[in-house]
């Protein structure tokens, strides 16, 4: 069978089942994946110094040498540090290399090894090169390269080293690169000034100069950006088609009755945002609006007013949430608020029995039920509405771009209004790049009478006191969260720490209270089960990794203990803190930093409760790239592009994508086939989004 880009890497020479599995851990399954696994950095060793010359280099000067290892050894120093040393030889002479504190290198660098080493020359019992970077180029049979080189450094994994990966590419690039074809229209490449794909991949993997590597990356970045912009432009196009907008009229029926029965007064921010939303909904053009508001700012009730405006105009309204538990929570909240009006919201989630789901679908299709709350279940093909007038997407960043747009597709004939909710404020510049002409309303005020959240920093020695405090809150009937950071769910150690913590708390600290544990390794059902017990106050203390940060509302929880807060971003800490202070009682957020953590930063956080201000601090700390990388703004993780560096490419991509969608809304042109294939590969349900719309 001929090798293609879709072939499994397993069919490559030197890659068996075992290797293929290891590559799988790096996200590499196909030949295409392999080619896109480009180095994350490079070692510039283009200028190799002959060994004899390196020996006489001034102390402290950086040199790069390539030579054969002729002997090795480990020697102790007076201070008890063990130094690995070896002698390197090339045709001009010999030089000693030394690695203080790295005796274990003895196992890796052995006699006969061909080594590239780069670092300063120092004085240590004579002249010695102390490598900062070194690369094992090969064994006895490896020939020294005729000149220096740029050495690619690949992301590796346990059992598959950087060197093995480099070998793999050396062995196969020659055969694999010719399989690659350009996918983007020539005009797009010209507009952005990037090189063709095959050339870009060659440059990224095998750059002759370091500048070439960057040129290769930029090509991949541009493709990534332009594909994303196409999907966004399409989503916008669908949302905005003006011919299809529904023009709602203010009837003062259900909306007025909700206002009468509301157990609280709307904040002025809520009133302002609502006004903006009503103005959109009563205009002939479709609404496409983002409602941004800090945690607890009361987005749900604002959305409910909008939903009722649709309903009193004879339409239906749907609200989609990212998890079942959030959907249930919204259904319960809406149910309470709507009870005096005699409206009962439907709840459509995956775990319902098939018969129940079918009955709900029937009521939605028949127009019997005006309001539905649900999860992804709402965008399944078999769900149809009688007349959907408003699509609300809560925690919108948790959905893919395509998924967000699909809810609005449930009324193709008229095109419902779209309201996106988000608790993550993002800076205006970035919002523009990501959402284009999306309108934004900001809820920048918290409802009054909310219990305050006091934030305190406590040191390890006060741990017993913190536990006593939790105990006293529990005695008063309250509940507590204890958050433990798990940076990467694949990090077994971190996860162990969180479960060990839960165990310890249950057995030794709070034997009289029920302690629960949720973490990202649990599946959605398991996680929801624990969360339900917490909400029902059966679990009193919830130990959690950051999986709780999204939208959960348990007003009875008044304590949030965060272990190792230094490991979280400020915006993330703010989300976590927002889980308490949701009832009338005063709440507490207790930060317990580890040794050496930067307390200043935590103090700044403790001093403010303003989410927008914290978002700015967070951005200053982490920069755009990280912010987007953390998937906080609802766009897929970018692998090659970086908003900081590639702003120019983003502009071009944005413009090209808009023009393309404007002239060919389904991108049906033959020349764009390869582009569509790529969209299908990269975006979940991406192709569905581009399907032609009847009518
Ligand atoms: P979020 O913006 O985080 O989604 P919610 O919509 O869940 O916030 O609202 C948080 C809590 O505040 C809910 O219990 C809600 O009923 C309550 N709430 C909303 N608006 C007001 C208000 N104007 N006055 C008092 N409480 C309010
Ligand atoms: Mg919410």
Features:
695 residues, 23 helices, alpha/beta, binds magnesium ion, 18% strand, single chain, 7-stranded parallel β-sheet, binds adenosine-5'-diphosphate
Report on the architecture of this protein.
The chain has 695 residues and is an alpha/beta fold. Helix 17 links the parallel strand 18 and strand 19. Helix 7 (210-240) packs parallel to helix 21 and helix 9 runs parallel beside helix 10 (299-311). The chain starts with 16 loop residues before the first helix and ends in a 5-residue tail after the last helix. It binds adenosine-5'-diphosphate (ADP) and magnesium ion (MG). The site of adenosine-5'-diphosphate (ADP) has 17 residues, from helix 10. The site of magnesium ion has 4 residues, from helix 10.
Question: Could you tell me the strand content as a percent range?
Answer: 15-25%
The hetero molecules present are: adenosine-5'-diphosphate, magnesium ion
Number of separate strands: 21
Shape: globular
For the largest beta-sheet, the strand count, sense and barrel status come to:
7 strands, parallel
How far is the N terminus from the C terminus? 44 Å
Task: Tell me the strand order in the biggest sheet.
Answer: 11-12-10-13-14-9-15
Helix-residue proportion: 25-40%
In angstroms, what is the radius of gyration?
A: 30 Å
What structural category arises from helix and sheet content? alpha/beta
Q: Give the helix tally.
A: 23
Mean pLDDT, rounded to whole units?
A: 87
Given as residue ranges, the uncertain stretches (5+ residues, pLDDT < 50) are 624-634
């Amino acid at each position: 069978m001929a090798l293609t880009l879709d072939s499994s890497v397993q069919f490559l020479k030197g890659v068996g089942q075992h290797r293929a599995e290891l590559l799988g851990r790096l996200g590499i399954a196909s030949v295409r994946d392999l080619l896109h696994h480009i180095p994350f950095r490079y070692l510039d060793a283009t200028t190799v110094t002959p060994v004899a010359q390196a020996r006489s280099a001034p102390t402290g000067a950086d040199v790069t040498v390539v030579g054969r290892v002729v002997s090795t050894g480990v020697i102790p120093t007076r201070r008890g540090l063990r130094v690995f040393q070896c002698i390197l030889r090339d045709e001009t002479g010999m030089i000693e290399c030394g690695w203080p504190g790295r005796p274990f290198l003895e196992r890796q660098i052995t006699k006969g090894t061909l080594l590239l080493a780069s670092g300063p020359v120092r004085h240590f019992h004579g002249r010695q090169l102390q490598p900062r970077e070194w690369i094992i180029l090969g064994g006895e049979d490896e020939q020294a390269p005729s000149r220096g080189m740029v050495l690619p450094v690949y992301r590796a994994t346990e059992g598959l080293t950087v060197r093995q990966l480099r070998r793999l590419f050396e062995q196969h690039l020659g055969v694999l690169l010719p399989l690659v074809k350009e996918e983007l229209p020539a005009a797009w490449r010209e507009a952005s000034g990037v090189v063709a794909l095959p050339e870009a991949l060659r440059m990224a993997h095998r750059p002759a100069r370091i500048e070439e590597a960057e040129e290769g990356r930029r090509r991949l970045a541009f493709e990534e950006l332009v594909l994303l912009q196409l999907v966004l432009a399409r989503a916008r196009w669908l949302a905005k088609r003006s011919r299809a907008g529904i023009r709602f009229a203010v009837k003062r029926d259900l909306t007025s009755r909700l206002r009468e029965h509301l157990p609280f007064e709307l904040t002025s921010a809520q009133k302002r945002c609502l006004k903006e939303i009503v103005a959109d909904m009563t205009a002939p053009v479709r609404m496409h609006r983002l409602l941004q508001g800090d945690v607890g700012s009361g987005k749900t009730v604002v959305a409910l007013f909008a939903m009722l405006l649709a309903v009193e105009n004879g339409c239906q309204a749907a609200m989609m949430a990212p998890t079942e538990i959030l959907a249930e929570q919204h259904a319960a909240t809406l149910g309470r608020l709507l009870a005096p009006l005699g409206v009962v919201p439907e709840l459509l989630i995956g775990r319902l029995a098939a018969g129940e789901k079918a009955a709900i679908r029937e009521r939605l299709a028949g127009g019997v039920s005006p309001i539905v709350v649900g999860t992804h279940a709402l965008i399944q093909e078999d769900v149809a509405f009688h007349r959907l007038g408003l699509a609300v997407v809560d925690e919108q960043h948790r959905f893919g771009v395509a998924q967000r747009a699909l809810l609005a597709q449930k009324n193709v004939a008229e095109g419902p209004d779209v309201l996106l909710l988000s608790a993550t404020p993002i800076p205006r510049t970035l919002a523009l790049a990501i959402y284009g002409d999306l309108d934004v309303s900001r809820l920048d005020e918290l409802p009054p009478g909310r219990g305050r959240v006091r934030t305190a920093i406590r040191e390890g020695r006060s741990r017993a006191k913190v536990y006593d405090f939790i105990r006293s809150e529990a005695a008063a009937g309250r509940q507590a969260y204890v958050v433990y950071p798990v940076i990467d769910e694949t990090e077994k150690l971190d996860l162990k720490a969180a479960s060990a913590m839960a165990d310890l708390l249950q057995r030794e600290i709070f034997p009289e209270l029920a302690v629960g544990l949720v973490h990202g390794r649990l599946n959605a059902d398991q996680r929801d089960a624990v969360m339900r017990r917490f909400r029902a106050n059966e679990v009193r203390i919830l130990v959690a990794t950051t999986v709780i940060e999204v939208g959960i509302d348990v007003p009875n929880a008044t304590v949030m203990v965060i272990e190792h807060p230094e490991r979280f971003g400020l915006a993330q800490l703010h989300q976590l803190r927002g889980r308490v202070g949701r009832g009338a009682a005063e709440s507490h957020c207790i930060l317990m930093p580890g040794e050496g953590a930067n307390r200043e930063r935590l103090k700044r956080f403790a001093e403010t409760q303003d989410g927008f201000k914290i978002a700015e601090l967070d951005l200053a700390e982490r920069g755009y790239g990280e912010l987007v990388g953390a998937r906080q703004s609802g766009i897929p993780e970018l692998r090659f592009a970086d908003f900081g560096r590639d702003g120019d490419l983003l502009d071009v991509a944005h413009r090209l994508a808009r023009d393309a969608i404007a002239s060919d809304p389904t991108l049906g042109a033959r020349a764009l086939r390869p582009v569509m294939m790529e969209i299908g590969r990269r975006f979940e349900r991406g192709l569905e989004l581009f399907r032609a719309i009847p009518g």
